[in-house]
From TrEMBL, chain A:
Gene Ontology MF annotations: FAD binding; oxidoreductase activity
Family: Belongs to the ETF-QO/FixC family.
Keywords for this protein: FAD, Flavoprotein, Oxidoreductase
Protein name, entry field: Protein FixC
Keyword Oxidoreductase: yes
Functional note: Could be required for the formation of a functional nitrogenase Fe protein. Probably accepts electrons from FixA/FixB and reduces a quinone.
Presence of the UniProt keyword Oxidoreductase in the record: yes
Entry-linked Pfam families: ETF-QO_FixC_C, GIDA
TrEMBL record, chain B:
The protein's name in its UniProt record: Ferredoxin-like protein
Keywords: Electron transport, Iron, Iron-sulfur, Metal-binding, Transport
UniProt domain 4Fe-4S ferredoxin-type: residue ranges: 61-91
Domain of life, per lineage: Bacteria
Stored Gene3D superfamilies: 3.30.70.20
Gene Ontology MF, one: iron ion binding
Summary of the function given for this chain in its UniProt record: Could be a 3Fe-4S cluster-containing protein.
Length: 435, 102
């Protein structure tokens, strides 16, 4: 292929699709390359889809996207080995009847999004791995090399939407290698059930209502991480993820951690009788703001997970991927319309837009969180256990008066952390990182 | 870890991966080990933490990799980046894991 494109997008996940769609809609000549048999065949998510980010790209997505359930209830579980303390938030009144989040399955969802991208006019080639970037003698990126025959493919700009591993960007020395403490390794299984079983087990009212459960505590065996359990139409997604550095240190097999979660008394009745049809693993960027690499250079832009855009506290990633992809697409189309080359200087436009968007603001807000969690593993083990002990003691009817119970319970929390001073310091640290 | 335990775990991993779809690129493994004088602790840790159980001990106690069940997560690449023991690339386009649901 010796054709020259306005832009080449590496990857057809949410960031690459958002970017390719935006540029194609603006009339640019776009080539998108994905290494999977079909877009989505390499991709993993929990998965919660946030409507807002997609609505800004495809306003009527609800009419055709493969959505599983709209999330009408969020549950938070804090687990100890044998008990569970939980909270939940339910909302049936959506603005204009339009839910703000849905559960999805990534393989069918990415296929759908990719179809929209092609309808918008982009050219997609699948089953093709980009192995390197092509630069001119001034170091400007001018194209890509793939594992197909036919030599390099050229473009004015290459958008790296290649996901968390960022292999192409690293090989071309545009970015540093990832660190084990900056990524989480997540494993997940999909268990299938008849639809009625899911509705009954999770107490779902409407036909499309869904529940998502986020889980902290003993499930991660003291490692920095969380677990989740999401309802799809006819399946349940269940998974757990912890920092890769913690897995390497504890040598706990991730699938064993998942099995332990599945055996927890709070989970067993929810999974009974299902059929497990897929087991997957994927990394999640969790290094936060300080791990974001340089995002632009002469002839290249990085978007999505490749740029570390995940807000681990709120479990948002795909929306940041779509938003960074869309913003890059808009800026590249504007530069093109003005006859400006996508040089690092001109791409300041993208860096500025990103800085003004919620994406960078949120990444900055939680800048200290990765550091806090890495240094304070007690937040994942000690407190959930202590809180469960407090609840157990408090609700046990055993002849002791409630005031004495309260005293003992509070002292137990302090004891678990070696004194009130430690508890107070923990609270201050958390508050500071949240500010 | 005893042999018996090993076998049991191998069995369970096969069951777990049984439902997954793969297009294996026969004769072109995308993950390779460049053995050094001794296996580093990082390489040894992969026997426990590779989510697809691709790393196993050989009879003479070294670590080997059989990446047919690999889910291309990249964990081994990152954990061993400094030891230089692992050569890692994505499989050729179209090969490797094929997620049905993701
Ligand atoms: C277990 C788990 C749960 C999650 N839960 C949520 C959630 O509930 N909500 C949420 O918003 N986010 C969630 N995330 C995060 C979310 O999945 C990511 O942020 C999002 O997928 C990033 O999109 P992306 O397009 O940047 O990258 P990806 O989705 O990883 O897409 C990258 C694409 O590039 C292709 N590619 C890579 N390298 C090459 C190459 N060299 N040549 C050609 N093609 C290539 C791949 O095939 C792939 O299609 C979760 C992630 C995980 C792992
Ligand atoms: S990439 Fe992931 S699944 Fe594949 S061998 Fe490495 S650790 Fe195992």
């Amino acid at each position: 292929m010796s054709e020259h494109f306005d832009a080449i997008v590496v990857g057809a996940g949410p960031s690459g699709n958002a970017c390719a769609y935006t540029m194609a809609k603006a009339g640019m000549n776009v080539l998108q390359i994905d290494r999977g048999e079909y877009p989505g065949s390499k991709n993993v998510q929990g998965a919660i889809l946030y409507s807002d980010a997609l609505e800004r790209i495809i306003p009527d997505f609800r009419d055709s996207a493969p959505l599983e359930r709209h999330v009408s209830e969020l549950r938070f579980w804090m687990l100890s080995e044998t008990s569970n303390t939980s909270a939940s938030h339910r909302n049936d009144g959506f603005e204009d009847g339009k839910p703000d989040r849905y559960t999805i399955l990534r393989a069918p969802f990415d296929k759908w999004f990719s179809k929209k991208v092609r309808e918008a006019g982009a050219v997609l080639i699948t089953e093709t791995t980009v192995v390197d970037l092509v630069k001119n003698d001034k170091g400007k990126v001018i194209g890509v090399l793939t594992d197909r025959e036919g030599g390099p493919i050229y473009a004015d700009v290459v958008v790296l939407a290649e996901g968390v591993n960022g292999v192409v960007g690293q090989r071309a020395k545009l970015r540093p290698e990832l660190k084990p403490q900056h990524v989480a390794l997540a494993v997940k299984e999909t268990h299938f059930f008849p639809e009625e079983v899911i509705r009954e087990r999770f107490n779902l009212q409407g036909e499309d209502d869904g529940v998502v459960i986020e889980v902290l505590g003993s499930v991660t065996s003291g490692m920095v991480g969380t677990a989740f359990l999401y309802t799809n139409k006819e399946s349940i997604s269940i998974g757990v993820g912890c920092l890769l550095a913690d897995f390497a240190k504890t040598k706990i097999p991730p699938y064993e951690l998942l099995d332990r979660f599945k055996r927890h008394p709070a989970v067993v009745p929810l999974l009974r009788g299902g059929e497990m049809k897929e087991y997957v693993a994927h990394l999640i960027p969790e290094g936060g703001y300080d791990a974001i690499p340089n995002l632009t250079g002469d002839g290249w832009v990085i978007v999505g997970d490749a740029g570390q855009f995940v807000n681990a506290v709120h479990r948002e990633g795909s929306n940041l991927a779509m938003t960074t992809g869309r913003l890059a697409g808009e800026c590249l189309a504007e530069l093109k319309a003005q006859g400006l080359a996508p040089t690092n200087d001109n791409l300041k436009l993208f860096r500025d837009r990103l800085g003004e968007s919620f994406v960078m603001k949120d990444m900055k807000k939680y800048r200290k969180v990765p550091h806090l969690l890495e240094k304070n593993r007690q937040l994942f083990a000690t407190y959930p256990r202590a809180i469960n002990q407090v609840m157990q003691a408090y609700f046990r009817v055993d002849g002791m008066d409630k005031r004495s119970k309260e005293g003992i319970a509070l002292r137990n929390v302090a004891k678990a952390r070696g004194g009130w001073w430690s508890v107070a310091t923990d609270l201050v640290k958390v508050a500071r990182a949240w500010r | 870890m005893s042999d018996k335990q090993d076998a049991a775990e191998g069995g369970r991993m096969e069951e777990r991966l049984y439902q997954n779809r793969y297009q294996v690129d026969e004769g072109r493994p995308h993950v390779k080990i460049h053995p050094q004088a001794e296996d580093s602790p990082e390489l040894q840790a992969l026997m426990a933490i590779c989510p697809a159980g691709c790393y196993r001990p050989t009879e003479n106690g070294r670590v080997e990799v059989v990446a047919d069940g690999c889910m291309e997560c990249g964990s081994c690449r990152i954990v061993c980046q400094e030891t230089g023991e692992i050569e890692w690339a994505y499989p050729r386009g179209g090969y490797g894991i094929l997620f049905k649901f993701g």
